Amino acid sequence: MSAAPHCSACDAVCCRLTVVLQPEDRIPERFTARQGGLRVMARDEQGWCVAIDGARMCCSIYDTRPGVCRRFAMAGPHCRASRAEYSAQAARGFSTPPE
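and the corresponding structure tokens:
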């Protein structure tokens, strides 16, 4: 049996998922983009959320992060499913995170 997922030993798959913003999310426009008519967290050319502080590998807007990010539980069902899908894609030679 493998150890429970933990953020300190992860490929930060959650930081590469599409994050749809809700009206109550107060995210500065410089961190957002439009995708299919929805306002989402923008991603850089490698697919990482633009709010990630790459030097420290942490969220630069943690205190004001979107509600969906607040509800994303480490080692929760969605975390485990996203990690499993990412691992399967990586095994097939793809490095794109699940949507």
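(Above: one complete record from the training split.) The chain has one domain: 7-91.
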